[in-house]
Amino acid sequence: MLQEESDLSLIIAQIVQKLKGSNLYSQLERQAWASLQRPEIKLESLKEDIKEFFKISGWEKKLQNAVYSELSVFPLPSHPAAPPEHLKEPLVYMRKAQGSWEKRILKSLNSMCTELSIPLARKRPVGEQKELLNKWNEMGTDEPDLSLFRPVYAPKDFLEVLINLRNPNYENGDSLSFRTHLGLIQVPLKVKDIPELKECFVELGLNIGQLGIDDSTQVPPELFENEHVRIGQKEQDSAAAQQYIRQGSPTALRAELWALILNISSQPEDVLYYEQLKTNVIQHDLLVDSLIYKDVKLTASNDDYYFVFEDYLYQVLLCFSRDTSVLSHFAFNSASPPKSYIRGKLGLEEYAVFYPPNGVIPFHGFSMYVAPLCFLYHEPSKLYQIFREMYVRFFFRLHSISSHPSGIVSLCLLFETLLQTYLPQLFYHLREIGAQPLRISFKWMVRAFSGYLATDQLLLLWDRILGYNSLEILAVLAAAVFAFRAVNLMEVTSLAAAEAVLADLSTLKVMPLLQIFLFATVT
Amino acid sequence: MSRVLVPCHVKGSVALQVGDVRTSQGRPGVLVIDVTFPSVAPFELQEITFKNYYTAFLSIRVRQYTSAHTPAKWVTCLRDYCLMPDPHSEEGAQEYVSLFKHQMLCDMARISELRLILRQPSPLWLSFTVEELQIYQQGPKSPSVTFPKWLSHPVPCEQPALLREMWALTEMIRASHTSARIGRFDVDGCYDLNLLSYT
């Protein structure tokens, strides 16, 4: 059909345009020129011979992986009449809500700035720069006075905004009727029900081997684990690796597999880029840095599993704030980067800049997105690249208001709908005692369960996020946790008691919970 | 294929409802929008684009002249086209849509009037309509093409074909620009900022 062909050529043109600016393009060019020396390349069939050479030497695979990566990250080209904000977020009222939320954050940051009389950004004097360079690998030993700083917002503030989200064209009557949402989220987004989730997460089924279940000590490894590991070791293709990891990744292969799926290969240019970011950190001191310090000290440093990685966290997050390549993801993120002007040049567009340079203002708990990755990657520039890619693919959706199926609003609604449909008694009971389930599970989902689950379980969960390229599994796990502790929860009589029942998730095994909830619950 | 916008006059939507609009409790689930083309002769319709606003199903009828002398007749060219897969939820509710000639049930020649019949069976929405309606007819067939510079400076014929191709390739690559960012966040080394701006 004409329409599909023209859509396809538009997608191809967009991907070619993006890849032209990448390292891979120049590498392929160099390889093509170098290959002219080879005897099997004949002048008459130059194009075909070079293509054949690329196929044999593995360069075609690298190109395939790069194209697959672009397809996974960037949304399909939208209708030609659609303005750019439509790609960020199609629903007008959600765009408005995101805009007002952002304004509140900016006001909060500005008032912190004026109250504490600290500039948003300043150039470090040379002495301070030298000192920081010396201390770069042990920034955790620094004990700056952060008592006056407070996080810009916490997940519970964000939850209040989501609770108040309303569609002006929707029947939001006061009287209870079939159309009232009994949970906290009041917008009618489309979410999947269990039959649809079963179809979507078919590889988590009862008759399919899983790491996290079928690698336990009671199960002989010949049944599943050995074969699964063997297949994983040979994998070179991003799309195949993504399919493979739906059944979990062996611990030894996880770092490689995640890098393959996210299409991260540490080239000298990438290390150089990271060093450049490090130089930017050393030269300029940002107010956001203090927020990062405070967040790491409050969250990761207090965590039994992650406190050892404190220095890595600073090295990644401080550089992340300076990385302008992150700005490109705002094309499909409903959020927009905060803007400012060089002092004295207010209103002049040539002096308009983004603050922080990457446009992302960290909130309380932000450093927990990085902490689990420290178990897998020890080289700072690779750790940095993996985190950045995870952020622009997944994590940004957890703290911006959008109608995307993996956005936090849809996840909250999915959680509430699953609980209401499959555990109606529990839902009703919790609602009656004033303990709306979302108030407890929201913090788990916003942090993608980081800091709440044991690390090996968390990594098994994040395997599936990568495998299915969606965050919906977070909502399903949240509902599964409630289902698991349902008996205890039915006996509580207050929100505090319900919180206590669900305070400690560190003993939970993620994959059995998911499997039982999706495939073994009687509906 | 190029297209030309046809100026049209979109009349206000009329709700189809049984009973008195003011006193009845329910909302009309069907709206009709008439589109006329006062200053244009009957034309061949190529494309319709619009922005949806909570309409679930769309039918289109056109008034068409089958031949020069018979009076125009109303023909249904699109029946119950689904814009929202689930009328109770937000999916597809504010999307931009294009409908083309080849999706229609009849041929779209000699159209003089258009009637859009919008249906929204769900009682959850306060109102529904389609916005930014634009009708296009086929444009002239010969688009102007700007030839790349290197074609106007032909390579002398002595060079072998391979080198010619390589040279053309390098010229093309040089001419195209990439979308790679430079990475500077400051302005001339200065990043001394005012407060954040709200606009």
Write up this protein.
The complex is a heterodimer of chains A (523) and B (199). Chain A is mostly helical. Chain A contains 24 helices and four strands. In chain A, helix 17 (408-422) packs across helix 18 (424-432) and helix 17 runs parallel beside helix 21 (472-484). Chain A starts with a helix and ends with a helix. Chain B has two helices and ten strands; from the N terminus they run E-E-E-E-E-E-E-E-E-E-H-H. In chain B, the strands form two sheets. In chain B, strands 2, 3, 4, 6, 7 and 9 form a six-stranded antiparallel beta sheet that branches. A four-stranded antiparallel beta sheet of chain B has the order 1-10-5-8, with no helix packed on it. In chain B, strand 6 (57-64) and strand 7 (73-82) form a beta hairpin. The chains are: A mainly alpha (523), B mainly beta (199). The interface between A and B is large, with 63 and 48 residues.
Give the tally of β-strands of chain A.
Answer: 4
Q: Low-confidence parts of chain A, pLDDT < 50 over ≥5 residues? A: none
Name the shape of chain A in a single word: globular
Apparent shape of chain B: flat
**N-to-C terminal Cα separation of chain A, in Å?**
42 Å
Greatest interface and its participating residue counts: A-B, 63 and 48 residues
Number of strands of chain B: 10
Give the SSE string of chain A.
HHHHHHEHHHHHHHEHHEEHHHHHHHHH
Largest sheet of chain A: 2 strands, antiparallel
**How much helical structure, as a percent, in the residues of chain A?**
40-55%
| Class by alpha and beta content of chain B | mainly beta
Question: Helicity range of the residues of chain B?
Answer: under 10%
Count every helix of chain A, treating DSSP H or I runs of 4 or more residues as helices. Answer: 24
